[in-house]
Design brief:
It is a single chain. By secondary structure, the protein is of the alpha+beta class. It has a domain of 233 residues: Porin, CATH 2.40.160. Helices cover 24% and strands 48% of the residues. The chain has three helices and 17 strands. The strands form three sheets. It has an eight-stranded antiparallel barrel. A hairpin with a 4-residue loop joins strand 5 and strand 6.
């Protein structure tokens, strides 16, 4: 009986299923309802984190966010374009003004003049400690780029770049590094090279015929770019008893070297510049310039250099039975002839 009842239940279920099969118009209605449900989910905010742990965001919100992002990016691009355009305009204005300043010839006084010159010089060393002795001058060579900014026909600011060699010969006394019972004379010939930026005030006369006279004064700010020296060392004093020194000379040749002395020379050099000369007009704005300049450093040239102090007779000064040691102080000066062309 139980078996028959189960079969009967299965048969009735099957028959019911078949008898309640969906009609075609019902399937269309169900499909339409499903589409409407999806559309509502897309166009309304649906936030259901509990449903399969999925967060659904409406298409309206997505479109709004996209529209805001696109508008912001467009505004930023427009602002950046405006900034670039403003910067380009500013650069163009500055460049045009510079060209106008450099190449303008409409005024009676040309605003800017450039030129090139060679400048041989005679240089010497100056002692300000009075313990080392200048021994001679050197002939050197230099060259320069000239740039004059004219305020009027009679006054100008003199600028440029000046590369020159300077130096000179000196003698000083040191303790023999191998035996402190002896003192050594050192004869050193300095060969120094600098690059200098001159800042001078230039006064010019009115043109007389084809010639204009000028005078100038100002400052030069330089950096040392090369330092060499030829050096000769020989023993000159010997300690006979404590604190007493006698001259020492056993003959023979001194020790000679050519050495790098970058560690003995200060990097920075400041100088006073005084000069004068003439400009001879050649053709148009081209002129020959010839001048004589005095260039004197007023900063100490030497760095970390020690020497034995001497008296007026160039004999060593002794304190507590020991030679008195001091720092070397001095600078270079030179007189140069400048010959060049102004354009």
């Amino acid at each position: 009986m139980k078996f028959l009842q189960e079969n009967s239940f299965s048969s009735s279920t099957l028959v019911g299923s078949i008898s309640h099969r969906s009609l075609p118009h019902e399937e269309k209605v169900r499909a339409k309802n499903a589409i409407n449900t999806k559309v509502l989910e897309l166009f309304t905010l649906v936030h259901n984190p509990l449903r399969d742990k999925v967060v659904r965001i409406s298409l309206v919100s997505m479109l709004s966010a996209f529209n805001f992002t696109f508008t912001t990016a467009k505004m930023r691009r427009l602002m950046r374009t405006n900034q670039i355009s403003t910067l380009s305009t500013l650069i163009l204005v500055v460049f045009s003004a510079s060209l106008s300043l450099l190449f303008s010839t409409e005024s009676t006084a040309q605003d800017f003049r450039m030129g090139l010159a060679i400048s041989p010089n005679v240089a010497w060393m100056v002692s300000t400690d009075y313990d080392h002795e200048p021994r001679g001058a050197r002939i050197n060579f230099g060259y320069e780029f000239i740039a004059d900014i004219l305020f009027t026909n009679n006054y100008a600011l003199g600028l440029g770049v000046h590369i020159f060699n300077t130096g000179g010969d000196v003698r000083y006394l040191v303790v023999d590094p191998e035996n402190d019972d002896y003192l050594m004379n050192v004869d050193r010939s300095y060969k120094l090279q600098y690059v200098e930026l001159p800042f001078t005030f230039k006064m010019r006369t009115k043109e007389m015929g084809y010639t204009t006279l000028y005078g100038k004064f100002g400052l030069g700010l330089g950096l040392n770019i090369k330092s060499e020296a030829d050096e000769a060392r020989y023993r000159s004093y010997q300690e006979v008893i404590n604190g007493e020194w006698s001259t020492y000379n056993v003959g023979g040749s001194p020790i000679r070297d050519r050495i790098e002395i970058d560690s003995d020379i200060r990097l920075f050099r400041a100088a006073m510049i005084i000069g004068g000369g003439l400009e001879r007009s050649l053709s148009g704005t081209t002129a020959l310039t010839v001048g004589l300049n005095y260039n004197a450093a007023f900063t100490n040239t030497h760095k970390n250099m020690s020497l034995v102090k001497v008296d007026s007779a160039q004999s060593p000064v002794v304190v507590s039975n020991e030679p008195s040691i001091g720092d070397m102080r001095g600078h270079d000066s030179f007189l140069e002839l400048s010959v060049g062309i102004l354009f």
